Here is the input.
Amino acid sequence: MPSPDEAFRTHLEVGPEGQRTPEPLSGTVTFLFTDIEGSTRLWEEHPQAMSQALARHDTILADAVQSSGGHVVKTTGDGLFAVFGRAESAITAALAAQRLLVGAAWDPTCEVRVRMGLHTGDAEFRDGDYHGSAVNRAARLTSAGHGGQVLVSGVTASLVGERLPEGAELVGLGEHRLRDLGQPEVLYQLCHPDLPRRFPPLRTLDAFPGNLPLQVSSFIGRERELARIVAALEEARAVTLTGGGAPPKTRLALQVAARVLPRFREGAWLVELAPVRDLDGVPGALAVVFGVSVRFGMTLQESLAEFLRSKQLLVVLDNCEHLLEPVAELVEFLMHSCAGLVVLATSREGLAVEGERILPVPSLPSPSPDAGPEVAGQADAVRLFVERAKAVDPDFSLMTENTAEVIQICRRLDGVPLAIELAAARVVAMSPAELVEGLQRRFDTLAGGRRRAVQRHQTLRAAIDWSYDLLCDDERRFLVRLAVFSGGCTRAAAEAVCGAPPLAPGKVFGLLAALVAKSLVVAQRDGPETRYRLLETIREYGEERLAETGETELLRTTHAEYYCQLAGGLYVDLFGPRQAIAGQRLVAEQENLLAAANHAIDTSNVDLALRLVRNTANRALRTSSRLILPVDAVLRLPGAVDHPQYPVGLASAAFDAAFRGDLTRSEAAGQEALASAGRLGSDPHEVDVLVSWARSLQAMAIGAWDEAAAHAEHTVELAGREFHVVDILAGGALACTMAGNPDAATRLASEALDLARRSGAPLSIALSLIALAGALAEHEPQRARALLAESLELQATIEVQGVHEATSAALIAARTADWPLVLKLGPDVIRGLHWAGDRPYLAGIFNVVALAIASGDPESAAVLQGAARRLTPAAVPVPRGIEVAAANAVPPAGAAPSGASFVTELRRQTTAALRNTLGQTRLHQLRAEGEAMNDDHAVAYALEAISRAGRG
Here is the structure.
């Protein structure tokens, strides 16, 4: 019997009936990739059975491909790569093969399950193989599927239309981000009555936690470097990609992160350090990305370690060179504390941490000067030039007439990717020969009249200089002004900050479009508004040029004032119909707001700094990510203590500290804010509201529900009917519910919902619905269920549901005895709370789930009770300020004792039921098993118990 490879080779070269395969297909073709799921394990455990199964698998696939008019290109491990001239032929082949594979009688020890992916694109055939982004897209599509599943890209589905085999249909799976970081792909599943229909979630970027950004251009070549970095991450927990500003270290690191993503249970996370200028700001940059707050009695660094301790994730630290010492210190601390943490850094030099692997990033290889179009087109540098040139001039192609010039451009630019992209962007206005001439003049000047080895950063600098010199005066001035932004900007921001004379705001859009076309500005269109940003190398260049104009300080002040006013203006939107969009906008502008605050601090502009604090510090409840401004540094500025806004700054600090759980700091800042307001004679209204609200949050944080309710009611009285009173009312309703006073809770929640509906703010409506559902859960369960369902539907439409909203929904579902909803919400709530490190709430949800499964799976319920007991924290003392304030507040009428906890009562019910079912001895044994589990084990156990209950 021939080997699998030989069998494929026979089919490829001779064909099914002994005839030679036709010439390679060109133009637009459809690619099919297949892969056997779990083949490595099958080979290791059952090599003989796998060998026989693979031979049968190979014959089925090759026959299906060729009988449908396709051509097998090559084997790919335990699968194949085939190409078809027509999309419907590829669909026919995939369906025929999958039906035979699924219906085959396999050895029970070696069942073959094949995943398939089809995608259509332009063919690029050379050296007996197909290359290009369409091929890569098809391979990524295949890897996203599961054994027995056929995935089809949106392009292929649109070409096929209704021309499907009998009984087949294409079922839409929605948009998904494949692991090539390109634009999302609309995916379909090929279904047929003979094929399985239900599969786990796709293995796309969306299936993993993380924040890897989309990339607006394709990734060219670098396969050797990718493989080398992936291998290094297998051996070392800290890998640093080094090189000057020229190599695309960031792009390479992101591509690696996407490729290794399945290795990390908690995903891959990008932390951009370029905007961080403060040596003490590195932990804060990580804290913002992960949403970590300072925990009681810990530093921020220790809080990060506690949060990351049980997680398996990859952190990409980008642009570390200006913060080497603090980055190295934090990385070493976290790596010693967090066994599952792996760091991939980019820097101009290594971090010098223990066990670090340093990998220099080389430039792209260029072909020899006399190479022809076919050979030159295979070189990564030339491929990059050609693809980027096609982006601005679709008619551009590599031909005999221009190959020598393109090669010379790539060699002249030393294979530096950014320099090549800048040159390629000019083909719309200059021929390759003219580009060569321009570069020749620039580099002869650089090299002193003779060509010599030029360092890569000099090459890049010369390329940027050359591209900059080709701009008109307005384009040059506008480009360097854009360097004042951190993390990009909107068109409106560019007009406001950069549109001063001699430019005019009306010219800004045209200038942006021109610079995007020249690859000097990147346009990102994956959010509610298009954002424009400079690559970090271009931004640094722009900063230098801006300093030469003498406009730096003026532009930075204009920038800071703009973002201060933006944050203040968004305040109204945060409590109106545009609430979700305003929240997204604040999150998108975090780096600019931080840069504005740092400028105010650096220039001792205490008025601007305090206005920034006032406009941003208490916006946490309306955004999915909290901005961390250096508030303490602002409050220490010369003259701050005598400024009229100082009390509000302190009150904002008190609110923010309460929100992140630093109760001692919150109460101290609150008391100082009240005292300073009296000392300065400032209007005490805003200070009183923020301090009272902060005290309500403090009490909630420690479960002092009576005190929290009293402070919430007092805050509402102080605030009147300001925009943010909806949040206070909803929080007060929750506190009253937890304190055992449903009447007061219903009153507050109803008022909150009425105000929220009148404002049209979707998230406020959703939260108020949850609060009212909780208040009514015990006495009007049917209405509570309806309110909860409405809230969940609304949150799904605006995609803002956070873990604490979902937790509240699960608890309310339990109060209404809606156990199917509890089990539906349970997995996401458990994962979210585990990710956030919120062990008290996790303990509560474990107890709720235990009651939900107690009748059908009493032993698992008992184990979860034990796991919950280990997670339950010891009592936390109430800070002195809360005790004093609560003693002076009027408790709600009819309030039950604060110890009347709903979750505690649920646990008692569960215990009674389990004691009757299992007996006291067995119940004690199972609880002990749960109590012995670590957090990861307990979470996995709970998720499996919920899954079993769903299957039952």
Summary: Residues 552-573 form the longest helix (22 residues).
